[in-house]
Amino acid sequence: MFEYTIRKGNKKDLDAICCLQLYSQEKAFAEITSNELKVPTLKVYTELWTRRLDSKENDYSFYVAYRDHLLLGFIYARMVVYKGKKIALIKALYVNPTHWDLGIGYALLKRLYRDIEKQEIEVVSLFILDQNKRAETLYKKFGFKFDSVVRKIMVHDQEYFLRHMVDRRVINRKKNK
Question: For a FRET experiment, which of 13, 64, 95, 141 has its CA 20 to 30 Å from that of 22?
Answer without folding.
Answer: 141
